[in-house]
Amino acid sequence: MPDRPNTPLLDGIESPADLKRLSDSQLIQLAAELRAETISAVSATGGHLGAGLGVVELTVALHAVFDTPRDKLIWDVSHQCYPHKILTGRRDRIRTLRQKDGLSGFTKRSESPFDPFGAAHSSTSISAALGFAVARDLGGVVPEGLGDAIAVIGDGAMSAGMAFEAMNNAGHLGKRLIVILNDNEMSIAPPVGALSAHLSRLYAEEPFQELKAAAKGAISFLPEPFREGAKRAKDMLKGMAMGGTLFEALGFSYIGPIDGHDLHQVLPILRMVKARATGPILIHALTKKGKGYAPAEAARDKGHATARFDVVTGEQKKAPSNAPSYTSVFGEALVQEAARDDKIVAVTAAMPDGTGLNLFAERFPSRCFDVGIAEQHGVTFSAALAAGGMKPFCAMYSTFLQRGYDQVVHDVAIQRLPVRFAVDRAGLVGADGATHAGAFDVAFLANLPGMVVMAAADEAELKHMVATAVAHDDGPIAFRYPRGEGVGVELPERGEVLEIGKGRMIRDGGRVAILSFGTRLSEVMAASEALTARGISPTVADARFAKPLDRELILRLAAEHEALITIEEGAVGGFGSHVAQLLADEGVFDSGLKYRSMVLPDSFIDQASPADMYAVAGLGAAQIEAKVLEVLGVASIAGKRA
What residues contact 540, with CB distance under 8 A and at least 6 apart? Predict the structure, then answer.
């Protein structure tokens, strides 16, 4: 195609084995072609651009030196894996990235043997690499074989406790293991914390700049006669610069910093490590997120996530917005409330923009805390803020909050501390697929004693729920809302405080009642219109609360209708299960109520548009209509209509 870049070397690469026949100068040319192809592909699909551009040279070097898939190359988070996918036999499908039936935007075991370990959340790679290394040494058998284990982890991901747990264990076990610290001073948001400052000092201070040549020499691999003297010189220089390194204290041999974009540096070091390493090694590579594409380099997030774009200008081709996003409504509502209440503080884990707290941080910088990729710490930090008399809003994606679940139970719920959990990305999220789908938060929060769990049906309801959370001081409270635009309802000037545990009637009807929890309400209303045209007029109610349930509303709906259907954007064990428990406890089923609960299926749904994913899940208007007809015994009509 005319808009595709000219890639003569890349055109001859079917698998990483083909890189072995290229000279170093050809590998440099290949890297340039791979960068151009990555930019071209993401311009057509949208996706994570900057991270992949930052590891193009590392990707080429790793596949040229190591023997994948026998050697296990594990990308932390893996939003930087597009160049890897292009080199590992998936170039012909790279323009299906993040689309229905296309390539995942992350590494995925079921997609390719070159993806030995799937990821989309951060800081798992060193643990996984250590597992492969131990399996190798214990005689584990996998189809591709077990060779070296290489983890590539960013400096932002290195801030998470799990990475240090893994390094501590790896240093103790002493297994041959290679960790590449891809240090670009940029995760999704600028990395925060003492580790980031430490890494900055490692390569900013003058004495250490002079040390780079010695560090690149990988002293532990020198012939014996030279080793001791060189080691003393290195230790002396390093002691002058920063008093020893954190990584060597954890048992890793440390090499670097090196220029991760200079294959003249990267290739010899990887070859030496492959030839001579015995224990755990950490290679500290400095890279630039968005490298080689000016619009990404200039962007505040370095082109982290992008819609489709024009390659020449970098201008993104975003569809015009019809309504504000739920995330922005939350962020603006919280700013509005915080202007009136100086006890409101906000906590996020490396996602200030993604959770809408960038608005809060601009207005109240001293009251907004980005704790880095550290959800466990973020939850407990919020708990103590609450114990200290503040009103913390802990804003995390549903799937990221999973990582802090023990802290939600142990540090928040048991102590009945009024932490306000703003649960973003609830339900199915589209292109990021199963790893980011917020399917489980209702189930894992609503089973905790004293926890209040709400779900917004639209953006106006979300604003009310922010106000309700501010006013709620009697224990923890959570409210969930999806990714993407609202439904376009008029927003109130200020949110109203809702009565805890009270739902609302939307429309009165007969025979069947539909009780909605969350943003499926718009689909329920569409189904109701279609059913009304058939002569069936359902009653519709919005539960608002999964805990505590509106007992009065639910029991009245059950008593006044022959059938009751609940619907939610969550897995089994959530809202519908709590309703069923109430109905069973009250003996309602003894009198013959027909009850159905529409939930997400017991499976992980691959990436597609949210509408397509909800169709697969069976939670669209057409499926709701069919469920009503089925429960009323008129499913045959639906069959004739179809």
Answer: 505, 506, 507, 509, 513, 514, 516, 521, 524, 525, 528
Cβ atoms < 10 Å from Cβ of 23: 8
CB contact set of 146 (below 8 Å; sequence gap of 6+): 70, 72, 132, 135, 136, 140
Q: Which of 106-110, 220-224, 364-368 shows the lowest mean pLDDT across its residues?
A: 220-224
Type of residue numbered 323:
A
Task: Count the alpha carbons within 13 Å of 564 in the hemisphere toward its beta carbon.
Answer: 22
Phi, psi of 312 (to 5 degrees): -70, -45
Task: Tell the residue number behind the tokens 């370990």, with chain if given.
Answer: 117
CA distances from 269 to 24, 81, 540 (A): 13, 22, 66
- Measure the CA–CA gap between 124 and 133, rounded to whole angstroms: 15
Q: Identify the band that residue 199 occupies on the pLDDT scale cut at 50, 70 and 90.
A: low
Residue 1: predicted pLDDT: 47
In tens, the pLDDT along 25-55 reads: 999 999 999 999 999 999 999 999 999 999 9
Is residue 289 within 8 A of residue 303, CB to CB? The reply is yes
Separation of alpha carbons 105 and 96, rounded Å: 10
At 133 the pLDDT is: 97
Q: How many Å apart are CA 345 and CA 418, to the nearest integer?
A: 12
Query: Which region, left, alpha or beta, applies to residue 91 given φ > 0 means left and ψ of -120 to 50 means alpha?
Result: alpha
Q: Are 81 and 107 in contact (CB under 8 A)?
A: yes
Amino acid at residue number 41: A
> Are the C-beta atoms of 483 and 542 separated by less than 8 Å?
no
Type of residue at 205: E
Report whether 174 contacts 96 (CB < 8 A): no
Q: Could you tell me the sign of the dihedral formed by the alpha carbons of 199, 192, 249, 80, in that order?
A: negative
pLDDT, residue 245, reads 72
> What are the residue ranges of helices labelled H in 46-70?
50-54, 56-65
The CA distances from residue 540 to 180, 448, 592, in Å, are 55, 28, 21
Q: CA–CA separation, 547 vs 478, rounded Å? A: 10
Residue 235 identity: D
Q: Could you report the per-residue pLDDT of 523-557, keeping only the tens digit for each? A: 999 999 999 999 999 999 999 999 999 999 999 99
Helix (H) or strand (E) run with residue 85 in it: helix 82-85
CB atoms within 10 A of CB 136: 20
Output the CA–CA distances (angstroms, integers) from residue 331 to 182, 220, 326, 339, 570, in the order listed.
32, 52, 9, 12, 23
Alpha-carbon distances of 190 from 300, 404, 638, rounded to whole Å: 9, 22, 53
* Assigned token pair, 323: 């309504």
Q: Strand locations in 32-104, DSSP E? A: 72-75
Report the catalytic residues.
289, 375, 403
Q: 273 φ, ψ to 5°? A: -65, -45
Closest CA to 145 of 70, 215, 78, 200: 70
